[in-house]
Amino acid sequence: METKNNLKAWFYLAPMLILMAVFTFYPLINAFIISFYKDYLPLANNGVGSITGYTLNNYAVIFKNQLFWRAILNTFVLAFVSVPVSIMVSLFISVSLKAIPKLKGFFQTVFFLPYVTNAIAVGMAFAVLFHKDYGLFNVVLRLFGITPIDWIGGTASWWAQMSALMVFTIWSSLAFKILVFTSGLENIDKQYYDAARIDSASKWTIFKRITVPLLSPLILYISITSLIGALKAYNSVIGLFGERLGGQPYRMITIVAFVYKYRADFAFQGFYSYAASAAIILFFITLIFSVLQTVVSRKRVHY
Amino acid sequence: MSDIYVKNEKSYKAKKITFNILTYLFLIAIAIAILIPFYWMLLTSMKSDELMRRIPPLLWLNPKEWQLSNYYRLFELVASGPRRGEPLFPFFTYMRNTVVISIITTTGTMITTVLAAFAFARLNFKGRDIVFAILIGTMMIPGEIFILTNFLTINRMGWYDIMDQSYMDVIFAMTLPFMTSVFYIFYLRQTFKQIPNELYYAAKVDGTTDFQYLLKIMIPIALPTIITITILNSMGAWNAYIWPAMITTKDEFRLVSNGLRGAFTDTGTGRTDYGQQMASSTLVTLPLLILFFTFRKQIMRGVSRSGIKG
Questions:
Q1: Do B115 and A116 touch (CB under 8 A)?
Q2: Which of A23, A30, A230, B238 could form a disulfide with A79 if both were Cys (CB 3.0 to 4.6 A apart)?
Q3: What ipTM, to 2 d.p.?
Q4: CA-CA distance, B38 to B60, in Å (whole number)?
């Protein structure tokens, strides 16, 4: 019923589309191309770059690289533990928030604080909290008679470092989930709870049979997006461990950190292509989860 | 009979009170866990060198023992080395850069976002749904994949000049790639769509152009959303770490996050001054918290909105 505004519409979209074309679409395609370059030197010839041909070998090189598998391991352990834990904890918190008559706003504000902080600054605070000598965690452990553990220093085990990273990651990711689940809970029809009360269902039954099922589409959506977010962990690792990425260099490397490590070495032949190959692999890993999300949510998670 | 009833009522009440107490205790415990890192940051930043070295660490300082020397020392000028004559932690330089970048990026983002959201919400054109779907599709792509080429683009534009990078170069390099946001377009489009069509037709009859309609009617109505987006977007520069580190060649061009890590570790001995480190962390955290408490409602509404997409 409205007149066609073809030309005008594209005019309104132009600023956004031009920026997206230059900084999103072209880089996406170009990353694939770079990952197939042979002996790529990106800044050679005044920034034009030089290659000696095309190859599939870059992928083979990073698949043979131990550091890459370490990055995969670290990233996957972090993502697949921290996301379910933080989802469960934030669900419990949100349900508790709903149950209390007073101080809801106060708690909500406190719980949201980690969201509005700088990951590097707070990561450094966690590094001090986990410090072998100056940290609070070991003070608490000492209360239980446990000898101080080196969580993040040069003698820290992988388990200790991963636990510290896990605690920090969960701490920072709760805020967003609590907020989203709380507003999700507000949208659940009160009738369900009234009906349950008449049947004198226990709180646990209500949680299991009403809250979780009705919230399941939201829980699924948040799970997948958080998982994708966690697979891109980087700033948190820098904040906690510094640029060495661990008590021992590169011990806590993640996929993104791997990409940046090889990107920074652009002066070495082919290293930029290794970075691109790793980025492409990360792209496909996240793509799998995005597709999974669309497929599952089509099937409706309700009930 | 009535006796039993009263008894039940009583036990029900008792149960409810116990449950409430437990719930509060649980929430208080979580709140403490959330606040501890902030507390430890502040506490450590106010310890003198002597108190800092105590093992086990002090959990509490008397107000008499509070001292700000760690903060003062951040602004002392470096005596030697490549950064001679600059403050140890050039907080105000980093702050200025962060604010400048934040304002320019946000202004640019707002312009592209409002125009695009208007087109998607209000105008009818061929390919609208396809273009929109493609844009939404890009939201899931990890940004790391773009950075590799964007760095090369910036270099080709002459903005990554190792020999002589100017402040303008840095501004272009730091802002242009982030001057649009699919999520904000999506968010604003939803708000625009709620504005009744009748307003549009009435304005059309009065001879108002589309652009006037956008400026005079749609933007004022959608102002709460636009303010929320503005605040959320301007916080982005505070967390930017890798991109500014990548494309700046001089220390004086960096943003707050970049200066933090590594600045207080002696490269020779590998020892870190935790007091100063936490003082700088506190300084960086503070502006964000002030912003948050000023615009708490807008920020929380905007963020909760991003969880309920689709």
A1: no
A2: A230
A3: 0.89
A4: 14
The full set of domain ranges for chain B reads 2-67, 91-307
> What are A54's strand-pairing partners?
A37
Let me know if residue A296 belongs to a domain.
no
Q: Do B34 and A279 touch (CB under 8 A)?
A: no
- Domain membership of residue A26 (yes or no) is no
- pLDDT, averaged in runs of 10, over chain B (310 residues): 57 82 93 95 88 78 82 82 77 90 95 95 89 89 90 91 88 93 91 90 88 91 91 86 89 85 66 86 91 90 68
Domain that holds residue A163: 66-264
CA distance A76 to chain B (A): 16
CB contact under 8 A, A34 and B149: yes
Residue in chain B lying closest to A102 (CA): B24
CATH architecture assignment, domain B91-307: Orthogonal Bundle (1.10)
Contact between residue A211 and residue A188 where contact means Cβ atoms under 8 Å apart: yes
Cα–Cα dist A169/A245, whole Å: 15
Among B276, B300, B308, CA closest to B71: B276
Give exposure, A218-231, as e/b (b: 16+ Cβ within 10 Å).
bbebbbbbbbbbbb
Domain count, chain A: 1
Determine, yes or no, domain membership for A33. no
Cβ distance of A121 and B284 shorter than 8 Å: yes
Whichever domain contains A135, its CATH number is: 1.10.3720.10
